[in-house]
Design brief:
five-stranded antiparallel β-sheet, about 15% strand, RNB-domain-containing protein, globular, 4 domains, NA-bd_OB-fold, 3'-5'-RNA exonuclease activity, alpha+beta
Length: about 1100
């Protein structure tokens, strides 16, 4: 075991022994100690030595020193721990099933241990002597891990099994800084499906798998501290790590009695990173007799999974060959694999874990989405051709290295016998020329390529000439394979962090010889592909995420095929499924409020008084009705289900429905079909009755949000927070749409004011039921995308290309404030949520299975209702505004889910909730319309569904069918919403990059910065917050004067670094403006 990975597990045990030996000698010479112990003891004895240097030295020793079992005195259980952490499914040795202490491991490799010289007896215990030594050798460890250069990157390999930290970098596919917007988006969208609550939350007693590189261990969750979890591992050690990236779990693995026994000896609060190592050594250790039941249970589970693997090893090792397609990707689950390969239709948890570990051990054949894998268990099976490509390029790189070595060290005869030159030679030569060509136009930085350098002739260049890309050197088929390999490494990030494939890309880039002084990592690989003309200088790598399966990028053959067939549709010849059932809304005013640049209008609303009452009103929400003309089995319907929703990126859009069909048939306009959701409400906003009607609207009025503010609340509009507008690359043309210049009549203004009042009443009512209003910044990013779409194409594999112009980017952000600002346009959100609640209530009353959005409370946290009623009011200001930190704490007490069983949605203050307002762009809404229309047709035939069990044969989907579809809907919605947020962030950071490094627009020297989180950031030595004038999440370096930054502080900061590849902005503190305390 000469590698670091091989000796990670016993590191803590060895270190404890070294401390014991050191103190047992009472300061005497270390000459008689074992070399490993002696070196460490000398390091520890050095007063004033820098702690980081000592830790680095210890790690270096751990990497280079071979642990000889002849010099260790570990008992039976310790040897079991070593073996458990090193085990993989390629070995044949078995773990002992006994976890009893006191036995000695016997075998031919264990020799007699040399005695340690006797030392004077001491009356102090070891722990007391260690504490005394610490007092005699005080050290300031408060900033040991706060230096920016110690910040891990997402691809760094870290030891998190023996030493875990909130500073660990995110895994592939996970974003480092989603910010509070992520929590609120999840709150609205829902993140999982109708599953056992045990599968939604991790809770004490659950078994989980923890990974660090190739090392794997099992652990039991003991307790949770906000963003961190505490575990007890099968090595008998406790550790603390962030509550993310748990990809396998078994609920209720041990009883709470076992957990409570462990908790008596574990820290009862989160341990800070700077003292965590000492706490693990000095203060908290579970006695072996107490931890034995938990360890024994985990080892038994491990052995059962190992037994399953050995029984089916020949099949499991061939899983990729047996399950993959030659050219297309596929999706499977661990249960499907167990059924297909093992013939087990009802696999046990150890069987599922054996399959899970086998697929994860495959270096490249299987990929998974780290964000949802624990719940879904889904794996993406890469095609055979893709795996062959990776293996072929790896072999070429090996040949290239051998030929380079032979060419420099062998004689002429040996060099003459070298086989044909590797294709890498020609690719490297071309790459050098292309990099030089790129640097004549653009300046590279470690994070990406800068904007085009303006030459003296640019002012005389016609815009039509500048708006072209220049093609350069062509790539051979073999060179295209190398490029595709590099894309998998640094664009789609398809290689696991611990994979040996991670080393091949850096070898290739170093061979080019153009990146001296750069860290050769995936970020530099992305820069390399930009400089050789494969990727555009501003490329948004989110679109290449294979888990998203967006059409046009080769990640999903099914999506590509259906997109081609669906989006070619120019006209729709289909029968109206609701023909004869539609109501003509006649002259009733229908108000559609959307931005001037909106391409598809999918909702509008109207209001009317209830005859015979003075304080009751019908609010009708009219929704575009494509479901009456598109069937689930049609090509358009199939593609909508595969894509799940229209994906809006600033530079391009992936429409769920054909744009030509939507514009010509469904986008709201006079004479267009609708499905109308009506709620009768009183002045207090309470829903008294609900109706759903198929209809046709005639009198449609289009209004922009700005015009609505002018009409309804001009004074409030003037009080809106200031807005920052930044533009680079030119002037953004203003958006426009026909029909927006119509003046509103007095009657229309009266109805809009009535709707505003009813919407506010609804909002107040929902706040009493659990809704909280958090003022989260939502900046807008616009990228000019001309009709030829020449800026945004797939990577150029056949021929390098260089762009002579950069896209225009416009960024708009209202200044961040801690209090909710009055805005009459919120009435649109209030009315849309009223429609969703009315739909949920109507379907629930009829027992119609639907994708209900609801919330469930965390079983081991504070009751959300109690927090809402007794905690938040104490923290709110005089106007009732809740602090951002407290609001996010409340959100974390609940989890939004999608279920076929109706339940309240507390975070939205809704008794029932079904999304129905966007069927043009969300498949879940389209599916809900199909289901509702089938129920309407059934009732139209004279049947009543009220309070009766509905016959599933009369509905579009049975509950069983919905339960089968909802898992994908829930995970896709969450995944694509995250992608849209990250795409907006990508372009915002592209703009800041061009402003900060190329001075394309003026930025202030300093900014005001609000701290909203200290522990959520996954990066060492930073706190997270908003820049007030930009409304963007950034990370402030918590070192120097910023090391005591607290949530709620206001700081003056300056930008330190902008990284487009990681979508990260670092700022450094200048001074504290206002302390939260």
């Amino acid at each position: 075991m000469s590698t670091r990975a091989s000796i990670v597990a016993p590191w803590t045990d060895c270190f404890n022994l070294c401390w014991t030996c050191l103190l047992a000698n009472n300061g005497r010479t270390t000459a008689n100690l074992h070399p490993l112990r002696r070196t460490r003891a000398q390091l520890v004895q050095g007063r004033g030595a820098n702690r980081i240097d000592r830790i680095a030295s210890l790690r270096s020793i751990s990497t280079t020193t071979r642990l000889d079992k002849r010099h260790t005195n570990f008992d039976h259980l310790t040897l079991q721990r070593q073996r458990a952490i090193r085990r993989n499914y390629h070995g044949t040795a078995r773990l002992n099933e006994s976890a009893s202490p006191g036995q000695r491991r016997r075998g031919p490799r264990q020799a007699r241990i040399e005695p340690i010289p006797e030392t004077p007896q001491s009356t102090l215990s070891i722990r007391e002597r260690l504490k005394l030594w610490e007092q005699e050798h005080p050290q300031d460890l408060s900033t040991s891990f706060a230096f920016p250069n110690d910040t891990p990157k997402p691809w760094d390999i870290q030891n998190v099994l023996s030493r875990s930290s909130e500073n660990s970098a995110p895994e592939d596919g996970e974003e480092a800084s989603d910010g509070p917007a992520s929590s609120l988006a999840t709150m609205r969208d829902g993140e999982t499906v109708d599953v056992d609550i045990n599968e939604i939350f991790l809770k004490p007693g659950d078994l989980v798998e923890l990974r660090s590189g190739t090392e794997t261990t099992l652990a039991i969750l003991t307790q949770e501290f906000d963003t961190e979890l505490q575990f007890y591992t099968m090595q008998g050690k406790w550790l603390q790590r962030p509550n993310r990236n748990i990809h396998f779990s078994q609920p209720d693995f041990v009883s709470m009695d076992v957990v409570e026994q462990l908790l008596q000896y574990l820290p009862n609060a989160a341990v800070a990173e700077e003292i965590r190592d000492k706490a693990m050594m000095l203060d908290a250790n579970v006695p072996r007799e107490v931890g034995a039941p938990a360890v024994r249970a985990m080892l038994s589970f491990w052995n059962q999974a190992d037994k399953v693997y050995r029984k089916h090893a020949s099949v499991l090792e061939e899983a990729h060959n047996l399950l993959s397609h030659e050219t297309n990707s596929r999706v499977t689950t661990t249960r499907d694999v167990a059924a297909k390969l093992l013939g087990d239709e009802t696999p046990s948890q150890p069987t599922l874990y054996a399959v899970h570990r086998t697929l994860r051990a495959n270096e490249y054949g299987f990929g998974h989405d780290v964000r949802n894998h624990r719940v879904t268990g889904e794996f993406r099976i890469r095609p055979k051709s893709e795996v062959r490509l990776v293996n072929t390029v790896r072999e070429w790189i090996r040949q290239f290295q051998e030929q380079i070595v032979a060419a420099t060290t062998s004689d002429d005869i040996t060099r003459a016998t070298i086989s044909q030159r590797s294709p890498v030679h020609g690719f490297v030569a071309k790459a050098r020329k292309l990099v030089a060509q790129s640097r004549n136009m653009r300046i590279p930085r470690e994070h990406g390529v800068g904007p085009r350098m303006l030459g003296r002739d640019d002012k005389d260049t016609d815009s039509t000439q500048r708006d072209r890309c220049v093609f350069s050197i062509e790539f051979s088929e073999q060179e295209q394979m190398i490029i595709r390999f590099l894309e998998a490494w640094c664009v789609s990030r398809s290689f696991a962090n611990h994979s040996s494939l991670q080393s091949i890309g850096p070898m290739l880039i170093r061979a080019v010889g153009s990146y001296q002084g750069f860290d050769i990592d995936p970020g530099t690989g992305f820069l390399f592909l930009q400089e050789i003309g494969v990727l555009a200088p501003w490329e948004n790598r989110i679109v290449f995420d294979p888990q998203l399966g967006l059409p046009g990028h080769g990640n999903s053959e099914q999506a590509d095929r259906l997109a081609y067939q669906s989006l070619r549709t120019r006209s729709l010849r289909a029968r109206d499924a609701m023909q004869g059932l539609r109501k003509d809304w006649g002259s009733m005013e229908v108000y559609c409020i959307d931005d001037a640049g909106a391409k598809e209008i999918d909702d509008g609303f109207s209001v009317e008084s209830v005859p015979g009452t003075e304080s009751q009103y019908w609010i009708h929400t009219h929704i575009a009705n494509p479901s009456a003309f598109i069937t689930p089995s049609s090509t358009i319907g199939q593609y909508a289900e595969v894509l799940s929703q229209t994906v809006y990126f600033p530079e391009r859009t992936y429409p769920m429905l054909p744009p030509q069909v939507t514009a010509a048939n469904f986008s709201l306009a006079p004479g267009r079909p609708t499905l109308t959701f009506s709620a009768r409400v009183d002045e207090g906003g309470e829903i008294l009755e609900t109706k759903i009607t198929s209809g046709t609207v005639q009198n449609v009025t289009f209004i922009t949000p700005d015009k609505l503010r002018q009409v309804l609340d001009n004074d409030t509009a003037a009080q809106q927070p200031p807005e920052t507008i930044l533009t680079v690359g030119g002037q953004m043309p203003p958006p426009s749409r026909e029909g927006l210049d119509k003046e509103l009549t007095a009657s229309q203004i009266h109805e809009l004011k009535l709707l505003q009042a009813l919407g506010q009443a609804r909002r107040d009512l929902r706040k009493k039921r659990g809704l909280i209003a958090l003022n989260i910044p939502r900046p807008g990013v616009t990228v000019l995308n001309n009709q030829f779409n020449r800026f945004f194409r797939n990577p150029s594999l056949r021929q390098s290309r260089f762009f002579e112009e950069d896209p225009i980017i416009e960024y708009r952000a209202k200044h961040f404030t801690l209090t909710e600002q009055p805005d009459c346009t919120k009435m649109v959100e209030d009315i849309m949520q009223l429609a969703c609640e009315a739909a949920g209530q109507w379907c629930s009353d009829r027992n119609v299975p639907m994708p209900y959005r609801c919330t469930v409370a965390h079983p081991d946290r504070q009751d959300p209702a109690d927090f809402l009623q007794n905690v938040l009011p104490l923290l709110a200001d005089e106007a009732g505004n809740v602090p951002l930190g407290a609001g996010l704490q409340y959100v974390k007490l609940l989890r939004a889910i999608v279920s076929t069983t109706p339940a309240p949605h507390m975070l939205l203050g809704a008794k029932r909730y079904v999304k129905v307002t966007s069927p043009l762009r969300r498949f879940g809404d389209l599916l809900s319309h199909w289901q509702i229309e089938s129920a309407l047709r059934y009732e139209a035939r004279g049947h009543s569904l009220m309070n009766n069990d509905v016959d599933p044969f009369h509905l579009a989907y049975s509950k069983l069918e919905l339960d089968w579809r909802l898992p994908r809907i829930g995970t896709r919605e969450k995944m694509l919403s995250r992608a849209e947020r990250n795409a907006d962030r990508h372009w915002a950071i592209q703009l800041l990059y061009r402003c900060f490094y190329a001075q394309e627009a003026d930025l202030p020297e300093t900014f005001e910065f609000y701290v909203y989180s200290k522990g959520a950031a996954a990066w060492a030595g930073h706190v997270s917050g908003f820049i007030k004038t930009l409304g963007i999440d950034v990370d402030m370096i918590a070192a120097g004067i910023g090391q005591n930054a607290n949530v709620g502080d206001w700081w003056e900061v300056r930008i330190r670094d902008v990284d487009p590849y990681l979508r990260r902005v670092d700022v450094e503190p200048v001074r504290l403006i206002k302390s939260a305390t």
